[in-house]
Amino acid sequence: MKLIAGVDEAGRGPLAGPVVAAAVILKENHAIDGLRDSKKLSEKRREELFRVISENSISLGTGIIHEDEIDNTDILSATRKAMRIAIGKLNPQPDEALIDGYALPDQIVKNRGIIGGDDKVPVISAASIIAKVTRDRMMRNYHDVFPEYNFAQHKGYGTREHLENLRKYLACPIHRKSFNPVKKYLPTLSNLKKERMLGKWGERLAARYLIHNGYEIVDMNFNAAPYGEIDIVAWNMGSTIFVEVKTASQTKLGDPESQVDEKKLEKLENVFEIYTSEHDQQGEFRFDIITVLLGKGKPKIQHFIDCLN
């Protein structure tokens, strides 16, 4: 059987978040009903088809290019790179890739573009659905970190509500800073200091870093009075990770080991116990520290894993 992959992307047009590409090789005898352009399906139906496509695929691959890399290049280059990554993850590799829109240049795998392919060719429709659902899930997770923008609703697209929130709150770390009108609403370090937002900004940068690296954010700023607060609760590889974020705009941060003395350790253990009892959490637990150094240029982020052992 000749292996044909469908390839499509989601997220070229939004003002925030990543662009996501998917590549799909369907089983020859699949009987998936309702494959069409993902934008013409309800969110519930896309989620249902995501599962069915996964079960009826020989191979799936996704490529994710985040907003910072989009800003460093351009959206077309980022989209093409995401597609190449998605195709590269397929195992086995296809004999040919059918791409929604235009062919992909400089690609080892033979490919051709099909205008409107996401609504004409079932295997491209399948890729469209995988890409859209993958990106939407990420944007819903970003909503938990940046709730004032309502990313769960508009997924980063330039709706009236999104533009109003952008003007009101200024851009956040997942906004595409090279896009209009985002570039008009970029916060400055002095502005963050003035509004006493430095610590919160650092926590959000840390949460973005975790999502970029495959973590799911479960909770932000969980208050376990009288013992204190957990900055971030995340989930990864079957483990719950409690994260403390240290943010500074100076030239130096102390070693993370020096941040946790016996008194702090006792408080943390109480906080963990309260959180796990309230959320009926089971499995492995871990305590990490993320340091965020703000200043000229890009923020410098360091992740120290399992700091209690």
How would you describe what is shown here?
With 309 residues, the chain is α/β, with parallel strands linked by helices. The chain is 36% helix and 24% strand. The protein has helices spanning 43-55, 67-72, 75-88, 122-145, 151-154, 160-169, 189-194, 198-212, 262-279; strands spanning 4-10, 19-26, 57-65, 96-100, 111-114, 216-223, 229-236, 239-248, 284-293, 300-304. Strands 3-2-1-4-5 form a five-stranded mixed sheet. Strands 6-7-8-9-10 form a five-stranded mixed sheet, with helices on both faces. Helix 1 (43-55) crosses helix 4 (122-145). The chain is globular. The mean pLDDT is 92.
Properties at a glance:
Trna Endonuclease, Chain: A, domain 1, Nucleotidyltransferase, domain 5, alpha/beta, five-stranded mixed β-sheet, 2 domains, 36% helix, 309 residues
In short:
The chain is α/β, with parallel strands linked by helices and 309 residues long. The protein has nine helices and ten strands. It has helices at residues 43-55, 67-72, 75-88, 122-145, 151-154, 160-169, 189-194, 198-212, 262-279, and strands at residues 4-10, 19-26, 57-65, 96-100, 111-114, 216-223, 229-236, 239-248, 284-293, 300-304.
Corresponding CATH superfamily of the largest domain? Ribonuclease H-like superfamily/Ribonuclease H
Count of DSSP helices?
9
Q: What general form does the structure show?
A: globular
Rg, alpha carbons: 21 Å
The helix/strand order is EEHEHHEEHHHHHEEEHEE
- CATH class value of the largest domain: Alpha Beta
Helix and strand content put the structural class at alpha/beta
Point out poorly predicted stretches. none
Beta-strand residue percentage: 15-25%
Helix content: 25-40%
| CATH fold field value of the largest domain | Nucleotidyltransferase, domain 5
Biggest sheet: strands side by side, in what order?
3-2-1-4-5
CATH architect. name of the largest domain: 2-Layer Sandwich
* Overall structural domain count: 2
Mean pLDDT: 92
Termini, distance in Å?
Answer: 52 Å
Care to count the β-strands? 10
Largest sheet: 5 strands, mixed
